[in-house]
Backbone:
């Protein structure tokens, strides 16, 4: 049963009366901006949604549900969910708008529509033509949160989905802002102001749930930067915020101007994008770029943390392909945590820096590390993200509860199990917000990782370690905040069952839902690479027609293949140090194609061998049958000749029947008795009489 702001799977129904103006405005606005290839009117209207949500007639309800399902299928094709948002049949602005309308239908249609929208925003390319529809999605999501979700007593799964969608939307808006494409959308930004104001004052209700509160903070921080630059006079962020922002700007930190609005990005973000470009081009300058990146690691501790979040996101994408980038990523967060803890321990200095925002960086890092552990290109990268580089004395020590009698563990590296051990050792009722937030994020992402690997038997070792870690946490962790992370993750996935006992059961309706953002980091890294290094890519974001051909050739070849699940025999054992780990590059597209072609040829050859073996068995059986038939005919001919010559039907060397032998014996015995018996009696009778006379 749902409790106050606790995970409960439910939906919102109906359309609020104040939503009519927003519906009509955006319907007219988006329809006029659609291309000539799309239809001029929508099949999903306000009347249809109201009728769908309020009907009580079962027959009419089934008819409306069937119509909604047909529109869901049509939207899937328009979104290009199977082609990563590319193709002649794809029209993202129209599809996003229709999916937002379908999300007003309660029940399974709402869940399916939100899942589709989240998946599309994750993998869609960056195109400035998407901006009107993107603002419409942002306004619709904020409206649903402020006018519906905040009014509810309980926490709903739809709220979590809306927050995740809002995060992706504002992440895309920030990238467009860096390219200078939001200058002509001041009216759209003004329309977002009331909802952002309500979100600012209502977001504290999610303080106990970092998975939601982190998205709220990201939306507000992004809106603050965009609105201050684009709407300096009309911004809802008052002069106090502007003054605070200017005071916290470090004059010693060099920043790079980007767009015409004068926004400057940190060197840390620039070097992370440069590292990504080096990995993509297999450049020999990668080590030099990584050394310079570590030189600017102190910028990760600056209060304007949005650049730092983007830097970690881009470097995380490079870490999925290169182990040196993964090492630098883990070193960045280890140094960040060590510096934060050392500053907070200086109790004698009352003027220490305020690091109340630092938990956002830690939480974002836990999500990035979980994605690396699942989707990295090689098994070494995945294993390292989970276990780390250091040699472990006991492979099971990291998943056992911490013994308080022993010395508290030090953070040697920022792998999943190392961070889990570190944060759990510092947990208490009055621990720092950063500590329990980091612990919360790790446990929350471990639940989703276990669910993601539920049907992948090839990665049973990885799944076993994650599952054992979660079981130990459930058995020994008594803190309500951490147990809430497990409950919310299971409610969000709508499948709180044991992944090891559900192979034979039917997959739930949420089986196709994306639990992690798989592609948005790659899209952002490419977009920022085109912005920072115009000589490598285009000087601006490419148009949609260019992206279609570009996606088919480059993205599908380079990204879809590494994202496929590979054979991974993962065992918890003593693993190599950094110097012993291979530093080779991930094989290119043609090498992977040759390998796959070899596998296909081997497969067909094995099938051909099986067919030939079956044919040989059939031929041998046929030859044996023919041989037996020939022997039978030969035997019949021999018997026929024997009968003609000897007038006997018995086989050669076969005795006659027993009845004939008995008759023959009787005949012979009678003839002997008749001939010899009279002679025997005549000869013996006188002798007998003489004997009698003697005795008499």
Residues:
């Amino acid at each position: 049963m749902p409790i106050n702001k606790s995970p409960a799977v439910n939906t919102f129904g109906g359309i609020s009366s104040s939503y009519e103006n927003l519906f009509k405005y955006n319907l007219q606005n988006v329809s006029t901006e659609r291309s000539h290839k799309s239809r001029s009117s929508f099949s999903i209207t306000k009347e249809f949604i109201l009728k769908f949500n309020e009907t009580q007639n079962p027959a009419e309800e089934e008819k409306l549900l069937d119509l909604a399902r047909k529109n869901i299928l049509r939207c899937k094709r328009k979104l290009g969910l199977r082609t990563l948002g590319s193709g002649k049949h794809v029209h993202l602005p129209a599809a996003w708008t229709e999916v937002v309308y379908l999300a007003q239908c309660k029940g399974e249609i709402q869940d399916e529509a939100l899942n589709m929208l989240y998946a599309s925003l994750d993998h869609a390319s960056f195109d400035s033509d998407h901006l009107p529809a993107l603002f419409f999605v942002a306004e619709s999501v904020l409206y649903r949160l402020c006018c519906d979700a905040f009014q509810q007593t309980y926490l709903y799964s739809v709220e979590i989905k809306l927050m995740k969608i809002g995060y992706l939307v504002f992440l895309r808006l920030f990238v467009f802002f860096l390219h200078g494409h939001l200058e002509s959308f001041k009216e759209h930004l003004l329309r977002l102001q009331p909802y952002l104001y309500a979100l600012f004052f209502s977001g504290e209700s999610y303080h106990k749930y970092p998975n939601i509160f982190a998205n709220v903070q990201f939306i507000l921080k992004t809106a603050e930067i965009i609105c201050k630059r684009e709407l300096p006079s009309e911004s809802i962020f008052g002069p106090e915020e502007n003054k605070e922002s200017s005071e916290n700007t470090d004059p010693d930190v060099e920043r790079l101007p980007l767009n015409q609005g004068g926004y400057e990005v940190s060197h840390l973000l620039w070097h992370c994008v440069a590292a990504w470009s080096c990995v993509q081009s297999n450049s020999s300058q990668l080590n030099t770029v990584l050394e310079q990146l570590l030189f600017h690691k102190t910028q990760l501790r600056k209060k304007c943390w949005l650049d730092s979040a983007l830097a970690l996101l881009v470097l995380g994408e490079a870490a999925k392909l290169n182990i040196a980038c993964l090492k630098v990523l883990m070193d960045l967060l280890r140094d960040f945590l060590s510096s934060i803890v050392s500053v907070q321990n200086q109790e004698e200095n009352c003027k220490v820096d305020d690091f109340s925002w630092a938990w956002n960086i830690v939480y974002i890092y836990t999500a990035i590390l979980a994605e690396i552990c699942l989707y990295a290109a090689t098994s070494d990268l995945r294993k390292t993200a989970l276990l780390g580089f250091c040699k472990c004395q006991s492979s099971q020590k990291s998943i056992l509860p911490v013994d308080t009698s022993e010395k508290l563990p030090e953070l040697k590296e920022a792998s999943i199990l190392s961070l889990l051990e570190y944060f759990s050792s510092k947990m208490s009722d009055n621990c720092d917000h950063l500590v329990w937030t980091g612990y919360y994020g790790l446990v929350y992402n471990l639940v989703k990782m276990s669910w993601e690997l539920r049907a992948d038997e090839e990665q049973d070792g990885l799944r076993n370690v994650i599952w054992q870690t979660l079981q130990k946490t459930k058995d020994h962790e008594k803190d309500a905040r951490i147990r809430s992370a497990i409950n919310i993750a299971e409610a969000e996935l709508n499948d709180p069952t044991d992944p090891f006992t559900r192979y034979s059961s039917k997959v739930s309706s949420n089986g196709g839902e994306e639990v992690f953002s798989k592609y948005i980091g790659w899209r952002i890294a490419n977009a920022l690479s085109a912005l920072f290094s115009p000589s490598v890519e285009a000087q601006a974001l490419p148009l949609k027609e260019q992206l279609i051909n570009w996606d088919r050739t480059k993205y599908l070849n380079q990204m879809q293949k590494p994202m496929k699940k590979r054979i991974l025999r993962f065992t918890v054992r003593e693993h190599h140090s950094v110097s012993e780990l291979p530093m080779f590059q991930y094989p290119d597209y043609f090498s992977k194609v040759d390998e796959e072609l070899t596998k296909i040829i081997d497969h067909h050859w094995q099938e051909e061998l099986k067919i030939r073996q079956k044919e040989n068995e059939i031929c041998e059986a046929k030859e044996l049958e023919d041989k037996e038939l020939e022997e039978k005919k030969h035997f019949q001919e021999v018997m026929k000749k024997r009968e003609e010559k000897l007038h006997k039907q018995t086989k050669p060397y076969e005795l006659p029947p027993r009845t004939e032998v008995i008759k023959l014996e009787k005949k012979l015995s009678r003839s002997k008795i008749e001939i010899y018996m009279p002679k025997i009696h005549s000869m013996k009778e006188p002798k007998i009489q003489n004997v009698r006379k003697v005795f008499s």
